Every structure is written in C-alpha cells, then in structure tokens.
C-alpha cells in the first residue's frame, strides 16, 4: 500500500489506522511525505521562538519517523516545501519510481478539493498522475508496469467544504491503540489528538450502522474513505 501525504503528519491522522491494520495483515506499507508541513502545519513549534525552517523540518521529520515506525510503515521524504507545495517533474518521476518499485495494491491520498489547503489536492493530483505514468508501457520500458491500484481519498479536516463523502469505512478497532500512540508523536499539533479520536469514534458508529444491527462484529473505531476509482467485482453482495 502507498500513502501520499502532502505534509509529514497528514498520514497519521487520516490513514494511520489503515497503515497499522494492513501492516498487521501482511502488507508492505510505504508513506511518501511530499513536504514536512514546516510552514503551514507547525504553528506550535514556531511559537517556541528561536526557530528556523531547518529546525522545524528536523522536528517534523523526527515526529513522522517515530509515527511511521509505530504504524509499521517505511517513510520517504521528498522535502518539496509547503505553503505552497510545488511538485517539479523530477519529483513526479521519483514518485513514479516508487509506484514501479512498490507495485501497490491501493493508494491513499487527500481529497480532490480543499479550499483551506491547496497543498492537499495537489498531493492527490500528483498521486494520481504518477499512478497513470507508472502504468504506461512506454515509460522506462523494461520495468514492470503497475496494474490499477485502487485510489481512495482519506478524510480531510473540513469534509463538507472539500466535497468529500465517505463511501468506504475501514474498521480500525483492533489497531486503534497503535494509531493513538502514533498520533501522540505529533507534539506540534496536540490540539488535534482528541479531535481525531472523536472522528474515529463517529466513523465507527457510522460503519456499524452500515453493516446492520444483525451483524455481530463490534466496531468502535473506523476511518472513512472516499473511493475515487471504480470497484470492479463479480459479486454485488
Ligand atoms: Zn496537511
């Protein structure tokens, strides 16, 4: 599985449960952080004073590495800068190489729209563009092309304004404690720890509603996803 994260903490809040769960189920999990979120998502670190961009980036890298280790993911930092994030062709091709090497079964990234954060939809755009290039026979012929990994948008901060509607719920109850530990590595954004715990509880209630009251499975925590590529199936049940 591949997670394309605009900033170095996004993957933890939005897909930490998916990473821990799939890792537990034998998947290889890789996270690409396009930036450290050093300007736009590190307010608490900047308020400490005596801060430089390099110091903030180093702190954010360390937090993300510790989180990824707890979740069981490999992490690669592209360090492209944030607010604004800009993705040159060289970085796009580096992401294509990640697809070709990893051959992911599915990809998680941001919502396709986010009026509060223009780095987020750009990350999703690049995740999808790299996926398509990685499928092209004529790109680096001789390498193994990728199939059609499913693409899901993980949950943004302001769902309604982002036109994000969950059509997939992932039961993360059994890995919740792991996700919470990974969340707690994000010292720069402590105000979000309980917020994203509440989100997981809410999505858990909704997930349960969608399997019906006769189901015996007890879901407490879930992550919501908006699948953006069609499902192809031979069984509609
Ligand atoms: Zn972000």
TrEMBL record:
GO terms assigned for molecular function: 4-oxalmesaconate hydratase activity; hydrolase activity, acting on carbon-nitrogen (but not peptide) bonds, in linear amides
EC primary class: lyase
InterPro entries linked: GlcNAc_PI_deacetylase-related, LmbE-like_dom_sf
Keywords, comma-separated and alphabetical: Lyase
The enzyme's E.C. designation: 4.2.1.83
Database matches in Pfam families: PIG-L
Database matches in SUPFAM superfamilies: LmbE-like (SSF102588)
Stored Gene3D superfamilies: LmbE-like
Protein name: 4-oxalmesaconate hydratase
Organism the protein comes from: Caballeronia udeis
Gene name in the database record: galB
